[in-house]
Amino acid sequence: MLFLYNTLTRRGEEFQPQEPGRVRMYVCGPNLYGPCHVGHAFSYIAFDVLRRYLEFRGFDVIHVQNFTDIEDRIIETARSQGKTVSELAENYISRFFRETDALHIKRAHYYPRATEFIPRMIEMIQSLLANGSAYALDGDVYFRVRRFPAYGRLSHRSPDEMMSGARIEIDPRKEDPLDFALWKGAKPGEPSWDSPWGPGRPGWHIECSAMSTVLLGETIDIHGGGQDLVFPHHENEIAQSEAYTGKAPFVRFWLHNGLLRPSPEEDKMTRHLANFVSCQEALQKYSPDALRLFMLSSHYRTALTWSEEAVAAAESGVERLKVALRPAYGGAGEAIGLPETAKKARDAFLAAMDDDLNTPQAIASIFELARGINQARDEGQGGGSFDEAQAVLRELAEILGLRLEKKVEIDETTRKHLEEQIAQRERLRIEKRWAEADRIRQELAKEGFLLEDTPAGTVWRKI
RNA sequence: GGCGACGUGGCCAAGUGGUUAAGGCAGGGGUCUGCAAAACCCCGAUCGGCGGUUCGAAUCCGCCCGUCGCCUCCA
User: Fold this and answer.
1) Closest nucleotide to residue A43 (Cα to C1')?
2) Which contacts qualify for A313-316: CB closer than 8 Å, 24 or more apart?
3) Complex ipTM, two decimals?
4) Any idea what the CATH number is for the domain that residue A313 is in?
5) How far apart are the C-alpha atoms of A423 and A310, rounded to whole Å?
6) A438 and A365, same domain (yes or no)
7) What is the pLDDT of residue A456?
8) Cβ of A446 < 7 Å from strand B?
9) Are A339 and A433 members of one domain?
10) Within a domain: A284
11) How many angstroms separate the CA atoms of A119 and A117, rounded?
12) C1’ B38 / CA A408, Å
């Protein structure tokens, strides 16, 4: 039984989809005013693992992730860079795919863009106006928060307690400071779409309601995103969606990941992208496996602080898992204790994942299994049970999206050269000409290859 | 002002009432090895502070100290 923590009820709840066997899941995607940073990656990886685990458990998952391709920040950024909004968006979308693919994040089934759903949003807004949930005002349309009694339920705050305008100025024309924009009239020079209220663009929140209801239906199983989206974004989504469809709940399970923070030393201001490490930068320095292992070493709902030191530590950990996948040396027969170790690790892994995706604990059992495998190899054991234990290790690692591949991006010439050098060194070693043998190893080290002598012969590793 | 999170060995991080407080990284000591590397074995914390509840608390309650997030830009 899979238990997931639901922000709405503030409890772990047993997860069952509405339609048996099929999960409808919507995850908030990026606002395309800038490149993705490791904080986005943290969120996408968390929900990627959720999806992988659901699929592992036999569910057919329909996964939707949106692109916010029209919004104030994008307009501003495009203008300052002398680009069109769509040029900017396209650029960041292709970069998004490059980076999420590299991070081994499974592609969603749909990547709807806000600008593709304008007619639907207009229709929703009209309907909200018709039923009294919204009001038009000089080309803008606002949602009437006070008309929605459940407002505040997700974020657990009451409209009366909120300090509206704590951070921005209140628009005095609004009926209530909490009312939020469904439609914004265009100012001169801004991109706009025609609407019954004049040219304008959608408010930020309505896009998710439109895309979610069109692609997944009026009630979906899971809606995910960062904790910073609980209020107001998701609160507003619930209000406008339920006011529109007349059906509740809009979402059965609300899942929110804790926020990734930049290193304390790097900058105090966490607001702007400039303080974050971009995915691109992270991928240049670290392997995707290490980045994933680092992020999954902490529970998804807990805030995690970005730390170069911790990612580097994860890199070493990944290396040990890879070593566990090396072949057995053999000689001592079947690895007798291994099947039990593998079963124990697998059971523990699944139990941890069932408990609100406790990946840190799940990872612990992967390492236990790796140790068991390495131990067996050291003792010269092998056979079918050894291979099966490695298969379990691969299986569990894949649920976390760890590839554990030996990266062999070397060309034929280099490979030949390596093989010749290793063979030559082997001859020297047989003749006990250690100094010459060591020289070969030193030279290869300079070329970036580390030689390791094992009972099964000499293997090389890229350093 | 309101709501909320967090503080566990050198670093990262699970555990939320009762076995010897997971796991990773780093470190020390070993085994193996011509050497090296890797792997394996062994070694380290009583859980921010104080008080309380309980037969029993890192785990529940209260207070204090510290860090952080949200309260319409934000994954």
Assistant:
1) B75
2) A314/A286, A314/A290, A315/A286, A315/A287, A315/A290
3) 0.95
4) 1.20.120.640
5) 38
6) no
7) 86
8) no
9) no
10) no
11) 6
12) 18
- Taking chain A (463 residues) in consecutive chunks of 10 residues, what is each chunk's mean pLDDT? 92 94 96 91 96 98 96 90 93 96 97 96 96 93 92 86 59 85 91 94 94 96 94 93 94 94 58 75 95 96 91 96 94 91 97 96 97 96 96 98 83 91 94 94 91 91 83
Q: What is the CATH number of the domain that holds A213?
A: 3.40.50.620
Specify the number of domains making up chain A.
Answer: 3
Task: Please tell me the predicted confidence (pLDDT) of residue A271.
Answer: 45
Q: Are residues A85 and A230 in the same domain?
A: yes
**What letter does residue A41 receive in the DSSP assignment?**
H
A416 falls within a domain: yes
Encoded tokens for A58: 């036999």
Amino acid A270: pLDDT: 42
pLDDT at A160: 78
Does at least one atom of strand B sit less than 7 Å from the CB of A180?
yes
Contact present, A297 and A363 (Cβ < 8 Å): yes
Determine the distance between A235 (CA) and B61 (C1') in angstroms. 32
Domain range holding A101? 3-261
Q: Is residue A293 part of a domain?
A: no
Q: Are residues A327 and A455 in the same domain?
A: no
If phi > 0 it is left, if psi is from -120 to 50 it is alpha, else beta; for residue A432 that is left
**A175 in contact with nucleic chain B (CB within 7 A):** no
- The answer to whether strand B lies under 7 Å from the CB of residue A332 is no
Chain A 254..273 CB hits on strand B (< 7 A): 257-261, 264, 268, 270-272
pLDDT for residue A402: 98
- A312 and A454 belong to one structural domain: no
Strand B at less than 7 A from CB of A358: yes
Q: Are strands A304-305 and A260-261 parallel, antiparallel or unpaired?
A: parallel
CA distance A227 to A298: 15
**Which positions of chain B lie under 7 Å from any protein Cβ?**
1-6, 11-15, 22-26, 33-41, 68-75
pLDDT of residue A268: 38
Q: Classify residue A152: in a domain, yes or no.
A: yes
Residue A41 sits in the same domain as residue A186: yes
User: Is residue A378 domain-shared with residue A432, that is, in the same domain?
Assistant: no
Shared domain for A101 and A151, answered yes or no, is yes
Residue A302's pLDDT is: 92
